[in-house]
Design a protein that fits this description.
With 310 residues, this protein is of the alpha+beta class. Helix content is 42%, strand content 15%.
Length: 310
């Protein structure tokens, strides 16, 4: 039997394997916390979350209120150059605004009329698919996030209905308490509370997610700089100059794009890692090399501070 902390760490690792981007994991897990929070706001503790295949299901009382599945289109069995990952949501809604909302979303989302007797009144399931491992500015992702935001009020109405019996009594017991996964809630709270650029984890960060606050100061400890260097998707073909000569990259730093600068930092971090034990110190690169790294870091900060240069 796994310990609670071991189970939490296993879940964090599993979600990181699906996507190395913190923003992806936060999107998938924040909705779980939000939906459970709607139930708690009613004063009810009648909710449970169950691990379900490659995702989770949230029930209030005896009814489903939210389900998430992580799916992958395998590049080996499709014409895609790389695997494509998606987060598929089933979000249950009800309330006076729902009929118009269903009509509006019908062009983009699959809508199912539902018939849970314990909910009462018309209610629907809205299917929303969010592409993962794509920039936040990706049109498909932007539309999916917009649709998720649009259903929240009607989703809250549904959760409130599910939290009460047909006579209006507030439920306090979950029908799925035995399958409740407390570790997933801990995992979700841990992941959603972390900030982009945290030096504790080398999460990958898109350029348009990057903020000045997430970039270590030039005099920061090597550990923080090293972790930041690993936040770029440097092996991606989109980083066209991933094979820049490491010395050349510093002299040409004003000519490089933000992606190329971050790739150069990544290359220097890897070069240090490969040479620890062969002349390099565990505490960080030699002073001359560290000066070049700090120059690149400073240029990254300047580009992020002035987005017109990106």
């Amino acid at each position: 039997m796994l310990s609670d902390d071991t189970e939490v760490e296993a879940l964090v690792k599993a979600y990181r394997e699906v996507s190395p981007y913190l923003s992806d994991r936060q999107l998938v897990l924040q909705q779980l916390l939000t939906s459970a929070g709607y139930c708690e706001a009613e004063g009810s503790s009648a909710w449970s979350v169950t691990l379900s295949g490659s995702g989770y299901r949230l029930n209030v009382g005896q009814v489903e209120v939210l389900t998430n599945r992580l799916t992958c289109m395998d590049s080996k069995t499709s014409d895609l150059p790389v695997d494509r990952w998606f987060s598929d949501f089933r979000i249950l809604i009800s309330g006076p605004e729902s009929p118009e909302l269903v009509s509006t979303l019908a062009e983009d989302c699959r809508i199912e009329p539902m018939n849970y007797k314990s909910v009462g009144g018309p209610h629907w399931c809205v299917h929303i698919t969010v592409p993962l491992r794509v920039p936040p500015s990706d049109p498909e992702r932007e539309k999916a996030r917009s649709d998720m935001a649009a259903v929240q009020s009607a989703h809250r109405h549904y959760v409130a209905n599910a939290a009460h019996t047909s006579t209006g009594k507030l439920r306090q017991k979950s029908s799925f308490a035995r399958s409740h996964c407390a570790a997933l809630i801990t995992c979700a709270r841990r992941e959603t509370s972390r900030r982009v650029g945290s030096p504790s984890y080398p999460d990958q960060v898109w350029n348009d997610e990057l903020t000045v606050e997430a970039i270590p100061a030039v005099d920061a400890p090597w550990h923080d700089i090293s972790m930041f260097a690993l936040t770029t998707k440097a092996y991606d073909p989109a980083c066209t100059n991933g094979d820049l000569e490491l010395t050349e990259s510093v002299e040409r730093k004003h000519e490089l794009s933000l992606s190329e600068l971050r790739t150069a930092l990544f290359n220097r971090q890897r070069l240090w890692r490969w040479n620890v034990g062969h002349g390099e110190s565990e505490e960080g690169p030699a002073p001359a090399e560290m000066d070049k790294i700090r120059q690149l870091l400073d240029e990254v900060r300047n580009r992020v501070a002035d987005r017109s240069s990106v």
